[in-house]
Design goal:
The complex is a heterodimer of chains A (about 600) and B (about 600). By secondary structure, chain A is an alpha/beta fold. Helices cover about 65% and strands about 10% of the residues of chain A. Chain A folds into 3 domains: about 15-165 and about 305-330, ABC transporter transmembrane region fold (Up-down Bundle); about 170-280; about 350-585, Rossmann fold (3-Layer(aba) Sandwich), CATH 3.40.50. Chain A contains 20 helices and 10 strands. In chain A, helix 9 (about 225-280) runs antiparallel to helix 10 (about 285-325). Chain B has helices at about 30-40, 45-80, 85-135, 140-145, 145-190, 190-195, 200-235, 240-245, 250-300, 305-350, 405-415, 435-445, 460-465, 470-480, 485-490, 505-520, 535-550, 565, 585-590, 595-605, and strands spanning about 370-375, 385-390, 395-400, 420-425, 430, 445, 525-530, 555-560, 570-575, 580-585. Classes of the chains: A alpha/beta (about 600), B alpha/beta (about 600). Chains A and B meet through helix 3, helix 4, helix 6, helix 7 and helix 8 of A and helix 2, helix 3, helix 5, helix 7 and helix 8 of B.
C-alpha cells in the first residue's frame, strides 16, 4: 500500500510553537478571528432550529402572529452570520499577512548575515522554496487552518450534542456513520498526498529537462539533436501525465465518498425519523431540524482530517524555516569591537594562515605567511584548486581563518567591526555579479555616499564608459531583469565597483579574463594608477595580469611554494613557467 | 553631493516594460489567439467532451433529486407511515439511495474523464511548446531570454494544470447546480421559486463588482511576488558581493519595502474576498428568510406542503455554497488565462530559419564553404555589408577582430543559426537553407564558448555528439582529444555524473568534453566560437593539443580573442566593420604591418 511509502513529511506539532513570537504582536486580531469564526458557525445553527420551531409552532397551529418574532430572529442571525464572516476574514487577512511579512523579513535579514560557507552549501533555489512555499503554508495555517481546527472541533461537539438532544437513537446512528467516512477519507487523503508529492517531484524533473534544453539550445541546435532532447522530455512528460491521472483517480474516489455519505445518511435519517414521527417520539419539526443540523455538521467533520494533516505539514514547514533561523552566525563582530585606525594604504599580512572546511576533507590552506606592504600589489598564481580564491576571501572575512590570523596594519581583521573592515577591503570577483538595478546602484553597491565624480572616475579606470551610451545612461537597469550585457562589459562594471572611491585594500580575482586583448590593455593602463595607491592582492591566470603586480606568490596545494618577481619565478620555477608561459607555442608562429 | 544617491524607486533603474503579465483590459474573456489555441487543443477531444457534458448533466439531475425526495418523504411517506403504510417510505428511501449511487458513480466518471482529457491537452501543449521553442531561431532565444522561455514551459503550463486540478470541475458543477436549482425551484412552486430568484440580481451585481476589482488586485499580487523573488534570488545568488560590499542594510530596506508592498497587494485582494463572500452569504440568508416567511404563510394557507418547504431550504443551501468557492477559484482562473495568453504568444512566434520542404540531399559533405555576397543585419543595423569568402575543404581559418566586427555573426551564418538577408551561404555548392536539418547538422557543427553539459554521465554527454555510439567509440573520441586521462581519474570514470550544468568539472574539462562530443559527431565543417577564451593557461594548452586533432581533415572556422588559438590556423582573416580587411597565413600577417601584426605584437609583449 502507498501509505507505507509515505515519506514522513509530518513534523511534530510542537514545532508550531516557533510561530508564537511572530504571532504574539497580532494576538488581538487572532482572537477576533477565532471569536468571529465560532459565533458565525453557531449562528448557522439558528436557521435549522428556527425552521423546526416554525414547523412545529406557527405552521402546526396556523398562528400567523407567532411567525413574525421567529422570522425576525432568523433575519437577525442571518445578518449576524454574514457580519461575523466579514469580521473573521478581515481580521484574518490583517494578522496572517502581517505575520507572513514579519517572518519573511526576519528570514531574509538573517540569511543575508549568514557566512558565505553557509550559502555555498545552500543553493539559492532551496532557500527560495523555504521563503516562498513554506512561508505561504505558514500563512494559510495561521489565517485559516489554525482557526478552523479549533472552531470545527467545537462545532462538531455542539452539533453532536444538539443531535443527541433532539432524538438520541437517531443521533447515535448518524454519528456512527461518520466513522467509516473519517477512516476512509484519511486513508485516501494520505494516498493523495503521496501522489501529489510524486507529481511535484516529476514536475521538478521535467523542469530540469526544460532548463537544459533551453539553456543548452546552442549545443542542441548545432548538433541537430532536437529529436533526442524531445524524446527525453516526452518520456518524462508522459510519466507526469500518468502520475497526474493516478492523482485524479484518488481525488475522484475521495469526492465520491464525500458525496455519497451525506446522501445515504439523509436517507437513513428519513427512515429513522419517519418511524420516530409515526410513534410520536419525534415531531415533524424535529425531523426537519435533524436534517438541517446534519448538513451543518458535514463540513466540520470532513475538514478535521485534512486540517490535522495541514497542521503537521505546517509544523514541518516551521522546522525547515527554523533550521535556517537557527543557523549560527559564525562570521560576526566579536563582542565589544570598536573601529580602529587603519592606514590607507594598509599593510596586509597573513600570519601562519590555515583554512579547512568543516568535515573530513583536508586543509585548503596551510601555513601561509605573506606580507603585502602598503601600496604594493602581489599576484597570486596557482593551478585550479590551489587555494587562491579562498586566500583572497579571508581578507574581507567572507570566510574566517581556521588557523593563524590575517592582519591589517597589525590589527587582526576579526578585531575590526565587519562594517569597517568591508569598507576598507574592496573586491572584484571572478564571476561578475550584477543585480537587477540601475547601473549607478550596481556600481555604488557598497558606497552609497559616493559622488558622481567618484563614479565617473571608477568607470573610467575600468574602461566602462560604455554605460553612458546605454538607453538611459547610468539609470539603465541591468542584470537578469534588465538590459543584458556581454561578459566583458559585466566584468568591467564589477571592476568599477571594486575601485570606486580608491579603497585602501583591493582584492581582484582574475578581473580581466573576459576582456579582449585591446580592452584589456586599456584597462591595465588605467588600473596601474589605482594600484599604485592601494594595497592589492590579484589572482592571475595570464601573464598580462601578473604584470600588474610588484611581486608574485605561487600557490601550490594550499601553501606558498615560491615568492618573487615575475622574471625571478619564470627563471627559477618550472611549475610557474608551466602555469603562465607559452613559449613552446610561440616558437611556431614567430618567423 | 547627493544626486548620485538613489532615492525611492530610482535604484531599480529604467528598463523597457516587460509584458509578461496579462495586459489590462484582457478581463475574463480570452483574446483571439488564446481562444484559437484552446480550440485547437480541445478539437481532438470533441467526442469525449460531449460525453462529459452528458455525464455532468445526468449527474446533476441525480444530485438534485435528493432534497426533492426528502420533501416528498416528509409530505407523503411520514403521513402514510403514521397510517401504518411503510410502502412509500421504502420506495422513497430506495429512490434516495439509488439517486445517490447514480450521482456518485456519474461524478466519478466525470472527474476521471475530465482528468483524462485535461491531461491529454496538457501533454499536447507541453509537446507543442517544447518542440516549437526548439525550432525557433537563436535570435528568438537571445531576445526572449532563457528564464522567460523556461517559465513558459514550467510555471505557465502548471498554472493551467492547477486550474484543471482544482478549479474547473468546481466551476462546471457550480454552473450546473445554479442552473438546475433555479429551474427546479420555479417548477416545484412558481411563487416561492420566484421569491428565491429575487436574490439573483443582487448576486450578479456583487459578482460583477468582485470580478472587476479582483482582476487588477490579483495582477498586482503576482507582480509583488515576482519582485520579492527577484530580490531574494539575486541577493543570495550574489551573496559574496552583497557581504563584501556591505550591502545588507540597504537590502534590508529594499526588501522590507517590497515585502510591505506584497502585504498590501495581498491585503487588497483578500479584502475583496472578505467582502464578496459575506455578501453572498448575506444574500443567501436574506433569501432564505424570505422563503421561510412566505413559505410558512403558504403552508398555513394550505397552498404548499411542509416537505416542499424543506426541499426549498435544502436547495437554497446548495445554491449559495458553490458560489462562495468561485471567489477562491477566480485567482487560479486568472493565472491560467494569463498563462494561456503568454503561451499562445510564444506559439505565434514564427520560425524564421525553417527547414526546407524539399531538401537537397547531401549524404556526405566534403566541406567547401562559400559565402556568396552575404549581407546580414539585426533590426536596423547592418553587420555584414556584403561578404565574399570561400573556405576550401580541409582548411583551418581563424577570424580575428574587435568586438562587434562581425565574427560571431559570420560563424552563426555558417552554422545556419541565422539566414542571410541577401546572398547565400553554400556548402559543397548547396545553399544551407536547402539542406535538411539532419544533413546540415551532420555536416556543420559549432562549439561555443561555454560547453553546455547536460545532466547525466560524462559518457552520455560525449555520446550526445552521436547518439547510439558505443563505449569504445566514446572512449576513442575522448582519447583523441586528450580527455581520457582526466575522465578515468574521476570517481566513476566515464560513468561519473556531471552534476547540474557540469558543476563538478573545471571549465577546461568541460570544454574538452565538448570537443570530444564534436569529434564524435565528426562533421565536415567545424566552427569554434571563442571556444578557448575562458580557460586558464594549462587548460588552454591542453585544449590546444586537442584542437589539432579535432581540426585535422575538416574545414574549420575559429573565432578567438586569444591569439594563441590562432597559431594553428592555415589562414587568418582580420575583420573590421563587417568586412575582411586582412587575409593571409599567420606568418605572412605577422611579418606585415597590418592590424594583425600590431595585435600580435601586443600579445607577444604581454608574455614578456
Amino acid at each position: 500500500m502507498d501509505d507505507a511509502a509515505a515519506p514522513d513529511d509530518r513534523g511534530r506539532l510542537s514545532a508550531l510553537l516557533r510561530l508564537w513570537p511572530y504571532a504574539r504582536p497580532y494576538r488581538g486580531l487572532i482572537a477576533v478571528t477565532f471569536g468571529a469564526a465560532l459565533l458565525a458557525t453557531l449562528a448557522q445553527l439558528a436557521v435549522p432550529l428556527i425552521t423546526a420551531a416554525l414547523v412545529d409552532g406557527p405552521i402546526a397551529d396556523g398562528d400567523r402572529a407567532a411567525l413574525v418574532p421567529l422570522l425576525g430572529l432568523a433575519l437577525l442571525f442571518g445578518v449576524a452570520e454574514a457580519g461575523l464572516f466579514f469580521l473573521r476574514r478581515w481580521a484574518m487577512t490583517r494578522s496572517c499577512l502581517a505575520i507572513e511579512r514579519d517572518l519573511r523579513g526576519a528570514l531574509y535579514e538573517r540569511l543575508q548575515r549568514l557566512p558565505v560557507s553557509f550559502h555555498d552549501r545552500w543553493p539559492s533555489g532551496q532557500l527560495l522554496s523555504r521563503a516562498s512555499s513554506d512561508m505561504s503554508t505558514v500563512r494559510r495555517f495561521v489565517g485559516f487552518a489554525a482557526v478552523f481546527l479549533a472552531v470545527n472541533l467545537i462545532t462538531c461537539v455542539v452539533v453532536a450534542v444538539l443531535l443527541l438532544v433532539t432524538y438520541w437513537p437517531l443521533g447515535i446512528a448518524v454519528l456512527l456513520t461518520t466513522v467509516p467516512l473519517t477512516v476512509l477519507g484519511q486513508r485516501w487523503e494520505r494516498r493523495y498526498n503521496v501522489q501529489s508529492r510524486r507529481v511535484q517531484d516529476e514536475q521538478g524533473e521535467l523542469a530540469t529537462d526544460v532548463e537544459e534544453a533551453v539553456q543548452g539550445i546552442r549545443v542542441v541546435k548545432s548538433l541537430g539533436r532536437r529529436g533526442l532532447v524531445f524524446d527525453r522530455f516526452d518520456t518524462k512528460a508522459r510519466r507526469l501525465r500518468r502520475l497526474e491521472l493516478d492523482k485524479v483517480r484518488t481525488l475522484a474516489l475521495l469526492w465520491c465518498v464525500f458525496e455519497l455519505h451525506p446522501q445515504v445518511t439523509l436517507a437513513l435519517i428519513l427512515v429513522g425519523g419517519a418511524f420516530a414521527v409515526s410513534t410520536g417520539a419525534l415531531t415533524v419539526g424535529g425531523l426537519v431540524a435533524f436534517v438541517a443540523l446534519f448538513t451543518v455538521l458535514l463540513w466540520p467533520i470532513l475538514s478535521l482530517g485534512w486540517l490535522f494533516a495541514f497542521a503537521q505539514e505546517t509544523a514541518s514547514a516551521c522546522d525547515r524555516i527554523g533550521e535556517l533561523l537557527d543557523e549560527p552566525l559564525t562570521v560576526t563582530d566579536r563582542p565589544g569591537v570598536v573601529p580602529r585606525p587603519v592606514g590607507s594604504p594598509a599593510r596586509l599580512a597573513f600570519e601562519g594562515v590555515g583554512f579547512r572546511h568543516p568535515g573530513p576533507a583536508g586543509p585548503v590552506l596551510a601555513g601561509v605567511d605573506l606580507v603585502v606592504e602598503p601600496g604594493e600589489t602581489v599576484a597570486l598564481v596557482g593551478a585550479t584548486g590551489s587555494g587562491k580564491t579562498t586566500l583572497t576571501s579571508l581578507v574581507g572575512r567572507l570566510h574566517d581563518v581556521t588557523e593563524g590570523r590575517v592582519t591589517l596594519d597589525g590589527v587582526d581583521v576579526r578585531d575590526l567591526p565587519l562594517a569597517q573592515l568591508r569598507g576598507i577591503v574592496s573586491v572584484a570577483f571572478e564571476e561578475a555579479t550584477l543585480f537587477s538595478m540601475s547601473v549607478r546602484e550596481n556600481v555604488t553597491l557598497g558606497r552609497r555616499d559616493a559622488t558622481a565624480a567618484d563614479v565617473d572616475e571608477a568607470l573610467r579606470v575600468a574602461q566602462a564608459e560604455f554605460v553612458h551610451d546605454l538607453p538611459w545612461g547610468l539609470d539603465t537597469r541591468i542584470g537578469e531583469q534588465g538590459l543584458s550585457l556581454s561578459g566583458g562589459q559585466r566584468q568591467r562594471l564589477a571592476l568599477a565597483r571594486a575601485v570606486l572611491g580608491r579603497p585602501s585594500v583591493l582584492v581582484l580575482d582574475d578581473p580581466l579574463s573576459a576582456l579582449d586583448v585591446h580592452t584589456e590593455a586599456l584597462v591595465e593602463r588605467a588600473l596601474r594608477e589605482v594600484l599604485a595607491g592601494t594595497t592589492a592582492l590579484v589572482v592571475a591566470h595570464r601573464p598580462s595580469t601578473v604584470l600588474l603586480a610588484d611581486r608574485v606568490a605561487l600557490l601550490d596545494g594550499g601553501r606558498i611554494a615560491a615568492l618573487g618577481t615575475h622574471s625571478e619565478l619564470l627563471a627559477g620555477h618550472p611549475a610557474y613557467r608551466d602555469l603562465l608561459a607559452q613559449e613552446s607555442d610561440l616558437a611556431e608562429v614567430l618567423p | 553631493m547627493t544626486d548620485s544617491v538613489p532615492t525611492g524607486e530610482d535604484w531599480r533603474g529604467v528598463a523597457t516594460e516587460d509584458t509578461d503579465d496579462l495586459p489590462p483590459g484582457a478581463g475574463i474573456f480570452l483574446r483571439d489567439r488564446s481562444r484559437r489555441l484552446l480550440g485547437e487543443l480541445l478539437r481532438p477531444h470533441r467526442r469525449s467532451l460531449w460525453w462529459l457534458l452528458a455525464t455532468v448533466v445526468a449527474q446533476n439531475v441525480a444530485w438534485l433529486a435528493g432534497p426533492l425526495l426528502i420533501g416528498v418523504g416528509i409530505d407523503v411517506a411520514v403521513p402514510a407511515l403514521v397510517d401504518g403504510d411503510a410502502g412509500p417510505l421504502v420506495w422513497i428511501t430506495l429512490a434516495m439511495v439509488g439517486a445517490a449511487a447514480l450521482d456518485t458513480g456519474l461524478r466519478f466518471l466525470f472527474l476521471t474523464g475530465s482528468g483524462r482529457v485535461g491531461q491529454a491537452v496538457l501533454l499536447t501543449l507541453r509537446r507543442r511548446v517544447f518542440t516549437h521553442v526548439q525550432v525557433l531561431p537563436l535570435s528568438f532565444h537571445e531576445r526572449y531570454t532563457s528564464g522567460r522561455t523556461i517559465s513558459r514551459l514550467t510555471s505557465d503550463v502548471e498554472a493551467l494544470a492547477e486550474l484543471l486540478d482544482e478549479g474547473l470541475d468546481g466551476l462546471i458543477t457550480a454552473l450546473f447546480s445554479v442552473l438546475g436549482i433555479g429551474i427546479v425551484l420555479v417548477v416545484l412552486d412558481p411563487p416561492l421559486g420566484l421569491t428565491a430568484l429575487l436574490g439573483f440580481p443582487a448576486l450578479f451585481w456583487v459578482a460583477r463588482w468582485f470580478q472587476r476589482n479582483s482582476t487588477a488586485a490579483y495582477r498586482r499580487t503576482r507582480e509583488t511576488i515576482a519582485a520579492l523573488i527577484v530580490q531574494f534570488t539575486e541577493t543570495f545568488g550574489g551573496i559574496r558581493a552583497v557581504q563584501a560590499f556591505r550591502r545588507e542594510p540597504r537590502n534590508d530596506e529594499l526588501y522590507a519595502a517590497l515585502n510591505e508592498d506584497n502585504r498590501q497587494a495581498h491585503d487588497r485582494a483578500f479584502w475583496l474576498i472578505a467582502v464578496f463572500v459575506p455578501a453572498v452569504v448575506l444574500i443567501g440568508n436574506l433569501v432564505t428568510v424570505a422563503v421561510l416567511g412566505y413559505g410558512a404563510l403558504r403552508v398555513m394557507d394550505g397552498a404548499l406542503a411542509v416537505g416542499t418547504l424543506v426541499s426549498f431550504l435544502l436547495y437554497l443551501r446548495r445554491f449559495f455554497d458553490p458560489l462562495q468557492d468561485i471567489a477562491m477559484f477566480y485567482n487560479s482562473y486568472q493565472s491560467a488565462t494569463a498563462a494561456l495568453e503568454k503561451l499562445s504568444g510564444v506559439l505565434e512566434e514564427r520560425p524564421t530559419v525553417p527547414e526546407p520542404t524539399d531538401p537537397v540531399p547531401l549524404p556526405a559533405a566534403a566541406g567547401e564553404l562559400v559565402f556568396d555576397d552575404v549581407r546580414f543585419g539585426y533590426t536596423g543595423t547592418t553587420v555584414l555589408p556584403g561578404l565574399q569568402l570561400t573556405l576550401p575543404p580541409g582548411e583551418t581559418v581563424a577570424l580575428v577582430g574587435t568586438t562587434g566586427a562581425g565574427k560571431s555573426t559570420l560563424a552563426r551564418l555558417a552554422a545556419r543559426f541565422y539566414d542571410p538577408v541577401e546572398g547565400e551561404v553554400r556548402l559543397d555548392g548547396v545553399p544551407l537553407h536547402r539542406l535538411s536539418d539532419a544533413d546540415l547538422r551532420r555536416a556543420v557543427v559549432m562549439v561555443t564558448q561555454e560547453s553546455f553539459l547536460f545532466s547525466g554521465t560524462v559518457a552520455d554527454n560525449i555520446a550526445f555528439g552521436r547518439p547510439g555510439a558505443d563505449r569504445a567509440q566514446i572512449e576513442d573520441a575522448a582519447r583523441a582529444i586528450g580527455a581520457h586521462a582526466f575522465i578515468t581519474a574521476l570517481p566513476d570514470g566515464y560513468d561519473t555524473e556531471v552534476d547540474k550544468r557540469g558543476g563538478r568539472l573545471s571549465a577546461g574539462q568541460r570544454q574538452l568534453v565538448g570537443f570530444a562530443r564534436a569529434f564524435l559527431a565528426d562533421p565536415a565543417v567545424l566552427i569554434l566560437d571563442e571556444a578557448t577564451s575562458s580557460l586558464d593557461v594549462p587548460s588552454e594548452r591542453l585544449v590546444q593539443h586537442a584542437l589539432r586533432t579535432l581540426l585535422a581533415d575538416r574545414t574549420a572556422l575559429i573565432i578567438a580573442h586569444r591569439l594563441s588559438t590562432v597559431e594553428i590556423a592555415d589562414r587568418v582573416l582580420v575583420m573590421e566593420g563587417g568586412r575582411i580587411v586582412e587575409d593571409g597565413s599567420p606568418a605572412e600577417l605577422v611579418a606585415g604591418t597590418g592590424r594583425f601584426a600590431a595585435l600580435h605584437q601586443a600579445w607577444a609583449d604581454s608574455l614578456v
